Amino acid sequence: MRAEQTTSRRRRAVPWGLLGLWIAVLALAGPFASKLADTQQDRAVDYLPASADSTHVAELQAQLPGGEATELVLVYHRANGLTAADRETAAAQVAEIGRDHKLTGTPRAVPSKDGTTLMYPVASNEPGQDEKARDALVDDVREVAEGKAGLSVDVGGPGALTTDAGKVYNSLGGPLLYTTAAVVALLLILIYRSPFLWLVPLAVAGMADYLAMGVAYGLHEGFGTSVTGQSSGVMTILVFGAGTDYALLIVARYREELRRIERPYDAMVAALKGCGPAVLASSGTVALGLFCLLAADLNSSRGMGPLGTVGVLCALLAMLTLLPALLVLLGRRVFWPLVPTFGSEPKKRRSLFSMMGSSAGRRPRTVLLGGAVLLGALALGAFSLPGALKQEDSFTKTPDSVTAMETLAKAYPEQGTRPLTVMAPEDRAAAALSAVKDTKGVESARQGRSGKGWTEISVIARAAPESAAETATIKALRAGLDGSYVGGASAQQLDLKETNDRDTMIIVPLVLAAVLLILVVLLRSLVAPLLLLAAVVAVWGASLGIAGLVFEPLLGFEGTDPGLGLLSFVFLVALGVDYGIFLMHRMREESLAGAEPREAALTALRTTGGVIASAGLVLAATFAVLTSMPLVQLVELGFVIAVGVLLDTFLVRTYLVTSASVALGRKVWWPGKLSRPATATDPVPEAEPQRVPAS
After folding, report:
1. Beta bridge partners of 445
2. Pairwise CA distance, residues 559 & 562, whole Å
3. Average of pLDDT values for 422-431?
4. Which end of the chain is more exposed for a tag (fewer CB within 10 A), N or C?
């Protein structure tokens, strides 16, 4: 009797205790979570590789007298030719800007040969490294530089581009969160067909996101972790996407246990014991895969690793503690109108996944070969991906700074319109300036500020910004200037691409090794993990191929973000393996229970297919939210991952992995004991094995 009373008290105390603990944790995290937006940095240096020339240039410029310079270009344009009044207006406006702000040097007008355009390069040290001051300067300049009666005036240059990009990133937080929550809510309503149940995992995901923001702020303050608009946005997507996936698995298994266990508390304990190992292994692969990004040299990628890991782990913690507590406290009524009553049986119906599994099981080799050929054909589309994305092509809606760049490119085809910057040792500045002027592809160069042992040299290339010819000039400068650094906006874009290529060579094998290790430990096999890894790599290639067929022909994108390949690989491998874990974990347990290989594979697909499909739809939809954002790199990343998750869910996991498992038979578990035929002396399992939740 006393034992029963103790158990009863525990059933009441544990859920309430967990709820109270979460309230306390969120109260403590609240002040820090609200500060995360203030730490977000979206300057070029916050994305640049730590060891690149352009990073050193940006850091050294900040140490010169007056600090970091904000460089702008005022572009005055009239289609049928500038008038004398236009030139007077331009000179007057530039003079007013000079009176209102501390400019470095006297702005000099540079007319175009066709007489339609006049550009005034201006720079100011007023803002320094203060982003708000920089934005205020750009806004003030734009307020003064106004066109009149057919005269258009646009403000471009690196400073204006950075300001426009920063405004876009700063505007993402609210819309991204609300859109993601709305999409997840809609899908949960359709999946659960309940007016109440969908609120529970959605609310828990929101609390997990709030906790993740607080932890991310702590990482920034304690370890200097880089926080950008891209990394914080992806963290939110991961919390809602991965967290909802874990919730779907737990709720499905909990519903199943409620039919055979009377008390909700006991049913939840059984559910967590059943699906807990798969959920833990799933989140472990994602977290470890993202954590590998710490090996990146690119600041933005290296910062995304810890933030993504924090998002996944906070989602896991919430779904394994707060979600079960709320479901137990709400009882069976939360499932209304489809309440799983004690002792009832689910409706018997032939599921879609049962039919799909049967078709894959009848001719496994044919299905496997056909799927492999299809994925390979799709992957060929990756050769159609456009080249590296230029800075001015990063926006889905053209801002003022990009309009200025486009006007300059047309009006000044004979010379570059975006300065390069060389930082030379002060005692060798004269020799460096001479060497710069003698470099092939350089139009002009002039010496600027000096201080802290360094001298600034501003360089104008003959070629257009980010063209192959300008890239050759940058490389020639770097090769010919010993002890100097070459930076500027175009050099930054070059460094981004080259460092992404280097990071990909290091991180791809690192992620594969980390995920393989977890799969080997979980599945007690070598063949099954290699099969799952081959499947997700094939999905990644096919997703990039589909992107190559869509980005430029259909969406009109002029380039591909240099980091797309690496980031999409990390996310698709880490997240895609999740569904393989759910499927293969159940397949292994069916085999342990004595099922033959074909029966085990088809039973695993039939029982987990619905949950995997629901989870895949939710995860794809959350990443698809990124395609509504106004930055091309976010649209591209969201598109590739969403397409990859759908391919993985409905083609690879359903047909290819299942058919490969049937074709391989017991060999799929080699060299584990399941790879050997059962004998009469093998022990019979004493109890039903733990299972991944049924659909």
Report:
1. 459
2. 9
3. 92
4. N
